[in-house]
Amino acid sequence: FEEVQDAQRLHISNIMRNIFEDACDMLCACCEQVVIGAGFSVDEEDDRKKDGGYNYTRKAAKRAICSRLAAFVKLADCVAMSALHRCALAALEGLLDELRSRAEENNRLIHLPADEVPVDEDMVDVKTKRVAEPRAIFITHCILRDQKLQFSPPEQEFASVLDKNIENMVGQLNSFEKFIFVEELQPFITGGLDALNESSSELEVQEIIRGDPFYQEVVEEIRYEFLEQFKQMKIASRAYQPFADVFLENLTFDIEVVAEEEPPLEFFKEEMEKYRRQREAIHAMRLSMVVGILILDADSLQKLFMPEAVRCLQDLEGLLPQIG
User: Fold this and answer.
1) For 38-55, where are the alpha helices, taking DSSP H only?
2) 157-191 tens-digit pLDDT
3) Residues 133/288, Cβ–Cβ less than 8 Å
4) What is the DSSP string of 62-122?
5) Rounded CA gap, 307 and 293, in Å?
6) To 10 degrees, the CA torsion angle through 15, 20, 26, 31?
7) Which residues of 202-232 are buried (b: 16+ CB within 10 A; e: fewer)?
8) In a 10 Å sphere around its CB, with 0-12 CB exposed, 13-18 middle and 19+ buried, how is residue 49 labelled?
9) What is the pLDDT along the chain (324 residues), one digit of tens a residue?
10) Exposed end of the chain (fewer CB within 10 Å): N or C?
11) CA distance 196 to 303
12) Dist CA 108 CA 3 (whole Å)
């Protein structure tokens, strides 16, 4: 997810840079047309060389034009900030919709009969030609730690990743430079900036977005949607609890204690059959499951559980001839 987000941010940065450069060219062309149309030159030195000189009246007239152009460029900044604001909100709404729709679609596919699952080319295993499980956005691993089933990465880490990516997305918008400070535009607006400089620094898109109640609401809904689906995944992970209980019980199995008790052959028959069933069940256990936008990987659990079941069985098989 983070790799995809980094690639997407780079892609968006390039698009924003292209848009910014095109907008600067357009603004420069507009300002130049206004200045020349009013009988002035872009370069003040050229104005001084014109017939009649560059007297106070002409300076005042050009300053008035620069003031209007400065207001025009600042208006362009306001329009750009507003557009970025709307883009940020649309992106967050898109993320929320993707979380919800992906979860709904995945859950629908999971409960469909096998012959009704739509065959999407992207979901077919090339080697087996079988339809793969629904595609998730995040993956976490079910592990046994401190004798409890836990998750890696855990819920809090996923939540922090979401928060970080939202913050990065909003922060990225500040890379869109303000037109009022663009060097190419200064010849057109410098004379009219005095009244605008004090307020131009107030246009910070990050603060505008973060202060938007709708933005705050969408961010909270994204967090809630993700945490709710993580909660459902925790419930689904209970399917692995019986395997964990058996594993913890197997850890206490001591063949030397069994040898000292000298149990009857019937004991060996029952116990060996039990460990064979365990071995078969662990071998057949589901190694992953999709819950909403999450995929729960249990491969490490199988690798942890299997050796203990095999050890118990082999210890009994080794002791049986000695008892006989």
Assistant:
1) 44-49
2) 888 888 888 888 887 777 778 888 888 888 888 76
3) yes
4) HHHHHHHHHHHHHHHHHHHHHHHHHHHHHHHHHHHHHHHHHHHHHHHHHHS-GGGS---GG
5) 32
6) 180
7) eeebeebbeeeeebeebbebbeebbeebbee
8) exposed
9) 677 777 877 888 888 889 899 999 999 999 999 988 988 887 776 666 665 566 777 778 888 888 899 989 989 988 988 888 888 888 888 888 888 887 777 666 555 343 443 334 443 333 443 444 556 778 899 999 999 999 998 988 888 888 888 888 887 777 778 888 888 888 888 765 554 554 544 557 778 888 889 989 999 998 888 888 898 889 989 999 999 999 999 999 999 999 888 888 899 999 999 999 999 999 999 998 888 888 899 999 999 999 999 999 999 999 887 665
10) C
11) 67
12) 28
Residue 146 Cα distances to 127, 173, 234, 236, 248, angstroms: 39, 44, 17, 20, 11
Any residues with CB less than 8 A from the CB of 125 and at least 6 apart, and which?
Answer: 131, 132
The dihedral over CA atoms of 48, 49, 50, 52, expressed in degrees to the nearest 10, equals: 70
The residue behind tokens 């079941």 is 309
The CA distance from 80 to 71, in Å, is 14
